[in-house]
Amino acid sequence: MIGLRRRRRPEVRPDARRILVPFAGALEPAVLDAAIRIAQAEDAVLVPAYLLLVPLAYDEDSPLKDQVGVAMPLLEAVEHAALRAGVAVDARIEKGRTLTHALRRLWEAERFDRIVAPAPANGGGGFTEKQLAWLLTHAPAETLVLKPMPHAA
Amino acid sequence: MAAGVGKTYRMLQEGRQAQEEGRDVVIGYLEPHDRPETAELAEGLETVPRLHAQLGGLEPNELDVDAVIRRAPELALVDELAHTNASGMRNEKRYQDIDEILDQGIDVISTVNVQHLESLNDEIAELTGVRVRETFPDRVLEQADEVVLVDLTPEALQQRLRAGKVYPRERADVALQNFFRADKLAALRELALREVAEDVGHRREAAVLDPLSRQAVAERVLALVEPQPKSQRIMRRAWRSAERLGAQLDAVWVRRRGQELEPEEQVALAALRRLAIVLGAHFLEEEGDDLVATVRRVAFERGTTYVFVGTPDESRRREILRGSLLSALVRELPGVDIRVVANRADRPERTP
Description:
The complex is a heterodimer.
Chain A: E1 3-5, E2 18-23, H1 29-42, E3 45-53, H2 65-84, E4 92-96, H3 99-109, E5 114-118, H4 129-138, E6 142-146
Parallel strand pairs in A: 2-3, 2-5, 3-4, 5-6
Chain B: H1 7-20, E1 25-29, H2 36-42, E2 46-47, H3 65-71, E3 75-78, H4 94-103, E4 107-110, H5 121-128, H6 138-143, H7 154-162, H8 169-177, H9 182-208, H10 211-217, E5 220-224, H11 230-245, E6 248-255, H12 263-279, E7 282-287, H13 291-302, E8 306-310, H14 316-322, H15 325-332, E9 337-341, E10 349-351
Parallel strand pairs in B: 1-2, 1-3, 3-4, 5-6, 5-8, 6-7, 8-9
Helix pairs in contact in B: 1-2, 3-4, 11-12, 13-15
């Protein structure tokens, strides 16, 4: 027998706190879990943002089909996980010449109350030491660097 | 595929073959690239002299379109289709010269590298890091009676480079480290193979489908968005479907007359515009108090075949009183598929 249970649909309230989770290439599940737990605790909106790199040979407004092709399913998966946990989501794709350039564009355009920045771990992406240093210096909001537990060998 | 694979050589072979079959063939323009075997193959084929008229102090060394038309052969061989003519010429591009020759009932065989195809420009830049400036429109390839791929493995092409058969030896080393790297050549080769495969597919379809049917199966996707977070999802899903369908994507927001946006709506709208740029979609802002009528007009103007719309927020009561948006869209957009983008997390959870 199969039972069906309808879920509550979380809504984005305009006055809600906004938690930015920027990433590129991949997002460690442990980082996502932590970000979702923080958003749950604060009744905040989760803003997962996939950062795209525009090669210098390109115009800044060029469409980036290949990178978008990677970003789309990842954002869907992140959004799905958050919504199933009852957390409202407002996903983004932002581009820039570098990851920090993309980040700066993002927070110049929008308000964020907290930033959860993944540190590199388990080969699952994350910002480099230099990028994290930049982020901690320039981020316009409270910033949390999250390093997931390394996988057991 | 790329410079040095033997396109000019193949064009000349085709020309000679046609001549042997009794056709009147001339060389309209040949770029011998100082390759002796190419020059040798051109021997015996009549060459129409190039244009050497004085133009603003410059002496262009270009295809003489009028001379080819006056000569009126059955077939003209014109190298380098994507070439940009010297300034002051009647046409800016050589493919336009070729159009004129074709208009006079003269067949043309030409050559071109895959990286010059306009629709591949972004992809080529992403693959090779080089933005190609000399491009030609896709319709030129589509209108060709036949497209022949001159294929060579990256290794064989690099071998030709090293042997000085493509560029003088002093340029070969630099070329091998830049555009002619094996990975870049492999990517270009894949693109060229794919392009020709698609061309073959289209030609087969064209042979099977009449023009009306072709029009019937061409797809164009329209996403209805609002300055709300859920519209990001609508755009993403619409883009994925558009990619699978090989369709163009439009996104439209219908703003009520005089509508003022809240600050968070302004942010959401700006984010949608940025997303549209990244996706290569066309973002349209329309003003109108009647959403369905405006969408109907936009869909008609854009040739939309698919409309993506979010799950309606209407309450049951409002739906009964005012009618459902979905029903109205289905009624007002005959022949257009309507897809409702659901929130996957709304799916009921399966429990044993």
